[in-house]
Amino acid sequence: MKAISIVLLVLNGVVLLGQLWPEGAPPFARAVNIAFLAGNLVWLVRSLRTSPARPG
Questions:
Q1: Where do the domains of the chain lie?
Q2: 56 residues of the chain, pLDDT tens digit each
């Protein structure tokens, strides 16, 4: 779990760097940004499907 957190922190840093300072972002920042957004979408859909329904 700790390794996943470190990877996510690094990816967040690259994405943030690309947003704040586009000229200083590494050449692979666009691919990281797209992969990060796709990963977030997959995580969100997966968590919505597996969460138990709330009564009410």
A1: 2-50
A2: 677 667 777 877 777 877 788 887 778 878 877 887 887 788 778 878 886 766 65
